[in-house]
Design a protein that fits this description.
Structural class: alpha/beta
Order of helices and strands: EEEEHHEHEHEEHEHHEHHHE
Bound molecules: S-adenosylmethionine, zinc ion
Number of strands: 11
Number of domains: 1
CATH class: Alpha Beta
Largest sheet: 8 strands, mixed
CATH topology: Rossmann fold
Strand order of the largest sheet: 4-7-6-5-8-9-11-10
Shape: globular
C-alpha cells in the first residue's frame, strides 16, 4: 500500500518509474541517493533546516562505534513485541535507529526535515521510504500508520493523531534524568536532571501511556568519540570554548547514557 501523501493537495502519492505522483499531477522525483523531497516551498521556513552537516557526521561516527547499541536493541525488541505493519519514524536523522527498526515491520517510512541527514540515511537501507519533510505536515495519509516513533526528535501531536490508525502507538525516546550527567557537569556551571515525564503530561489528552522503560548504557569514551558526542548534541552550541577544550583534552571519559522509552496508545 502507498502511504505517502501529496504535501500540496493531500491526495495519495503513487510511485512510478522513480517519480511519486498524485492524481492532480503533482510530482516528486526520487533523488539519486534514494529519498524523496516532500518539503515543499510553501511549508519551508529556512533554506537548510534541521541539523547541520557537521552534527550529522558526528552522530554517524559516534553511533557507528556502537555506544548507543543498548538503546537500539531495546527499541527494536519493543517494536517486535507490538507485531505491527506500518512504522513512521519522525526526525529519523541519519537513520541509525530507523535502519534497525525496519526489519520488524512490513513498511517503514523515515522522515526528517534535514536533507543532508536523509541523504546520509538513504544509503543505509533501500527497504525504507526515506522522505525529507516537516513534522508539521507529516507526509503520510490519514489513519495509515500503526506506530509513530520520535527518538530525541519533535513530537507533532496533532499530526501524529491524524496519521495513526485507531488505537495506534506512539513511541517517544528522550533523555532520562541522569543522561550524560558527568559530561554535562564538565561542560556547564549548573546542571539539571532531565525531566522526561513532561512528555507524559503533554500527551495525556490524546494518548494513554501503556509502557515505560529506562535503558542505561555506561560508556568509556576514547577522546575522538567524546568529541563526536559533544558535536552531535545541542551542548555544542551552548558551551563555553574553554570548558569544551578542557574536556576534549582528556584521553578518555567515563559517562553514562540513560534513556527513557515511553510507549503511548492513541485514545
Ligand atoms: C537529535 S536528532 C535525532 C535523530 C535520530 N532520531 C537519532 O536519534 O539519531 C533530531 C532530528 O530531528 C530533526 N528535526 C528537527 N525539527 C524537525 C521537524 N520540524 N520535522 C522533522 N524533523 C525535524 C532534525 O533534523 C534531527 O535530525
Ligand atoms: Zn497533489
Amino acid at each position: 500500500m502507498n502511504l505517502l501523501m501529496c504535501p500540496v493537495c493531500r491526495e495519495q502519492l503513487k510511485l512510478n518509474d522513480r517519480t511519486w505522483r498524485c492524481d492532480n499531477q503533482h510530482s516528486y522525483d526520487v533523488a539519486k541517493q534514494g529519498y524523496v523531497n516532500l518539503h515543499v516551498v510553501q511549508h519551508k521556513h529556512s533554506k537548510n533546516p534541521g541539523d547541520t552537516p557537521e552534527s550529522v557526521q558526528a552522530r554517524r561516527a559516534f553511533l557507528s562505534a556502537g555506544h548507543y547499541a543498548p538503546l537500539q536493541q531495546a527499541v527494536v525488541k519493543k517494536i517486535r513485541d507490538l507485531r505491527i505493519e506500518n512504522l513512521l519514524d519522525i526526525g529519523c536523522g541519519e537513520g541509525y535507529y530507523t535502519n534497525a527498526m525496519q526489519a520488524e515491520v512490513l513498511q517503514c517510512v523515515g522522515v526528517d526535515i534535514a536533507k543532508n541527514a536523509v541523504q546520509v540515511a538513504a544509503k543505509l537501507n533501500k527497504e525504507i521510504t526515506w522522505v525529507v519533510a516537516t513534522g508539521a505536515t507529516l507526509p503520510v495519509l490519514d489513519h495509515s500508520i500503526d506506530l509513530c516513533t520520535s527518538l530525541f526528535s519533535p513530537i507533532p501531536e496533532q499530526e501524529i493523531l491524524r496519521v495513526l490508525k485507531p488505537e495506534g502507538y506512539l513511541m517517544v525516546v528522550t533523555p532520562a534524568p541522569d543522561h550524560l550527567y558527568a559530561m554535562r557537569e564538565a561542560l556547564f556551571e549548573e546542571v539539571k536532571p532531565h525531566e522526561p515525564h513532561k512528555f507524559v503530561d503533554q500527551l495525556a489528552e490524546g494518548f494513554d501511556l501503556v509502557d515505560e522503560m529506562v535503558v542505561d548504557a555506561p560508556m568509556i569514551l576514547p577522546q575522538q568519540d567524546l568529541k563526536n558526542l559533544i558535536a552531535m548534541t545541542p551542548y555544542a552550541y551552548k558551551v563555553k570554548a574553554e570548558r569544551r577544550e578542557a574536556l576534549e583534552a582528556q584521553d578518555q571519559f567515563e559517562v553514562k547514557a540513560q534513556y527513557q522509552i515511553y510507549l503511548f496508545q492513541k485514545k
